[in-house]
Amino acid sequence: MNQPDEEKDALRRRCAELEAENRAYARYIRDKTNHLLGVIGTKELEEDELDDQALIKLDPIGIVARSFLQILTNLNQTIDELREAKNELQAIFDATGVGISIVDRNFVVERCNEKQREMLVDSSVEEVVGRHCFEVYCDRNAPTSECPALDSFETGKAALVREVQKKGRWFQLVTTPFSRAEDGSINRVIEVSMDITEKKKVEDAEKELREFCQTERRKLATVIESLSEGLLVVDEQGRIVSCNLAADEITEQRIGENCNRPLDDAIAEFAPLLRSDAGNVQGVEVMTRTRQGYDLLLSVNVGCLSDNEGRPLGHVLTFRDITEEKKRAELYHRAEKLAAIGQLSAGVAHELNTPLGSVLGYARLLLKDKALPDNLKNWAEIIAEQAKKSSTIIQGLLRFARQSNPAHRCLEHCFLNDVIQRTLPVLSTELDKRKIELISELNPVAPVVADPQELEQLVLNLTMNAMQAIGEKGCVRIETAQAGSKVVMKISDDGPGVPEEIRFRIFDPFFTTKAPGEGTGLGLSLCSGIVSDMGGAIDIAGGEDRGATFIVSLPASDAVEGSGDLHE
Amino acid sequence: MESREIVEIVDLNILGQVCPACLLVALDALNNHEESLRCGTKRLVVRTDHRDSTRTIPKAARKMGYDVEVKKVDSCYEISIGRKYEPTR
User: Sorted alphabetically, which Pfam families does this protein's record hold (chain B) (predicted)?
Assistant: First the structure.
């Protein structure tokens, strides 16, 4: 073999060696690249995908190295951020107004901030971390069933305990699961303690205030319900907001069950009082009508309601039934007037009685004079008769004036039926003359306490009144009956009756429907006085057109009342 | 990424290539445009039809601290990589 051939062989071998080295390098690069790709998390390079030449040209190690540099830079940046966040969290952990500690599964305190130590740990305890939470926080040897940490470990949920007392203050504790073990169980919790002493004080004060308000509201409701006056609260739109029981009773409506309806619907007569610009009004008399159709006179007060800032809220109306009060007042005025008439009459009667006695006395003296001529004797008789008549009228007047004076009475137990039977014969002549039939139906009645003479006068006056009403022919009926504790006497006639417009006056003294000179107008007035003094009542019934019935109701004597001792 | 900034799109078409070559090409582009991608003036949009790439490229880019969005456009995928939004501290 010549030299050129040898050189060629040597070069060929060298080339083969170099190619082998190149392949080894390429293999090395490919292996390293695959290794790095594995670190990144992708699969290995395929040779047919990227041949050695392309691989070397691509410089995958360089690429991955530069990428790793970016990843490293990013990681460093992330670490810095995490460190910063950790510092922030530590600052928050230390500076927060609530106590925070981290407790592990064995109830050992891993971390505890200053606030937690300040709030829950006694100053004598130096180290908290590493010790049991129940020991340093609760002064116990083991966690109790109320321990929120125990609850969170068992349930895996946040737990709350309110009103834990420590160092004279109140706390609220909340534990929240913080981290889990591999088996998924909670192995650490964060415990947050909050001082709620001030909040509790406010809550207690609010509770006390609420109870006070509720008590006051109940008191007010009781007062309103117990008022005898009706009360309605009406809002600005004129709707009834509330009402009391008395309002329902007075108006005979169920306003309380239908609140929120317009006032116009319930008591339309009240509405103008709210529309007026007068504001508060007092004692306005309003006439309305009950559901049963009776007239109802109400005295109404209206007050304006407003809130704290003076904005109008509506009105409150109070009212009372003054129908009877008004009637009583009218009766009182009439009674006063009648008393004045009585006193005047008594004075006049007394003054007239003495000279009239003289007139009668001298007339009788004249009649005894046998020398008196007959014509003068007749005149003297007329004088005596008229004087006697006048005297009767005067006696009536004096009786009327004396009727309220109990000193003149002689009270005893009287049987009304006996009195009637004793009195009626007195009238028999007059009854026969006038063709008036008298029917009596006397049922067993209890005795009454009365002056027998007054009782006789009562029967006599009422019977005569009936006869006078009838005139010449008719029927008078007298009935007695026991009605509970009352003895009732009814005297009816079939005369013309008593017109409605004069019924309230027929018991007044000197009131008469007879022609002047025919009646004094004192009979029924005397009856009314006698009955009233006995504690009874007298009333008139019957139709306007025909007939009248006087009903006298007298209290039965207590001595025999209820004993069944009735007298026929 | 703020919408008002003018962002240059760097289009990287690797249709037809498969992993991990796709990943290396994408990483190379991320290395080459690192600065402008970091400051948000550029956004790299990789167009690939290789499904694995939609997993490997975003994973690596996120580790490098980039924001990545992947969406399917017609028959291929577009992986958009750019500056991660960071709230003002």
Answer: TusA
First to last CA, chain B: 16
* CA atoms within 13 A of residue A339's CA, in its CB half-sphere: 8
Is a pLDDT exceeding 60 seen at residue A559? no
Domains of chain B: 8-82 (3.30.110.40)
Strands in B8-13's sheet, in edge-to-edge order, are: B8-13, B42-48, B76-83, B66-73
What is the ipTM for the molecules in this complex?
Answer: 0.90
A58: chain B residues, CB-CB within 8 Å: 24, 28
From A278, A277, A290, select the one nearest A230 (Cα to Cα).
A290
Strand B8-13 to B42-48 pairing: parallel
Partner B contacted by A87 (CB < 8 A)? no
Q: What is the C-alpha to C-alpha distance for residues A377 and A366, in angstroms, rounded to an integer?
A: 7
Q: What is the 3-state secondary structure (H, E, C) of A318-361?
A: EEEECHHHHHHHHHHHHHHHHHHHHHHHHHHHHHHHHHHHHHHH
Report whether A372 contacts A420 (CB < 8 A). no
The CA-atom distances, in angstroms, between A21 and each of A16, A28, A120, A194 are 8, 10, 75, 74
Structure tokens at A470: 């009838």
Q: What does each C-alpha distance from A378 to A381, A382, A418 come to in angstroms?
A: 5, 6, 42
Q: Using DSSP, state whether A83 is helix, strand or coil.
A: helix
**Length of chain A as a residue count:** 568
d(CA A43, nearest CA chain B) in Å: 6
